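For consistency, the fold was encoded as tokens, which produced the following:
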Amino acid sequence: MQLCCIAGRETKLLSILRRELRLSDGLVRRLKPLNAFTVNGQAAHTDCPIHPGDRVCAVIEEPAPDFPAQNGALDILYEDEALMVLDKPAGVIIHPTFHRQQDTLANYLLGYYEKTGQKCAVHVLTRLDRDTMGVVVFAKNAYIHALLMEQLQKGQVHKTYYAAVLRGPAQDEGSIDLPIARSAPGSLLRCVRADGKPAVTRYRVLERRGGYALLQLQPLTGRTHQLRVHCSHMGFPIAGDPQYGGGAGGQRLLCGRLELSHPLTGAPLVFRSRQKITLPNG
């Protein structure tokens, strides 16, 4: 990806890179040895003087990922030069780990990039648990990922989930405001505990039937396992979630909708999963 702008004042190249092209300090440091910056078509250092009318460009290049590319099925909801948005099925891990380097969504995405001739990286913005379905957003390079992470940290990325739960809440809508902490040192599980990090979830009941309820859930914070922990603690665990009291049969949790602004144009974007959640006896 190449980013360019025309300077409007006397300054230094580093200032243009930071303020006009919105490159992070870390990305500037990584790109410097690659001769990625030019002024009027000539390679330039970050302390280069810039004059009004100068054309400043930065080429964003990505190192090759340290995991293998694989052929695999991808349900693509949206793609452009900056973003890849996928509809993740249940049972698939998003990104390789130390113990598992293959058969993840990232492996399949890298295989797709290679097959289509795209020199892109795999930077995930919003992670989903292995058994959670739905919308996942990937940035195609570190620059785009940094811009998206800024939106996420400012609360400008909005996610809506749908879940089938056991029993259901007493009220048809409300908020769960309970802190979440790691269950024990080294554990992957979480729990509600007074010394945990703040966590807030809004819920609304969409349907009740046969001892189950269909909920719309909106996490206002992004804690690990937040929705699963909050629902379980309140007495209505997500159906099919054995780790938090929902029994077996497949976890019924879907990230059904995600809203953000395009990192380059600022245009509002809404992505919707093609998958659906139904009540177990539906």
DSSP finds five helices and 18 strands in the chain. The two ends are 47 Å apart (CA to CA).
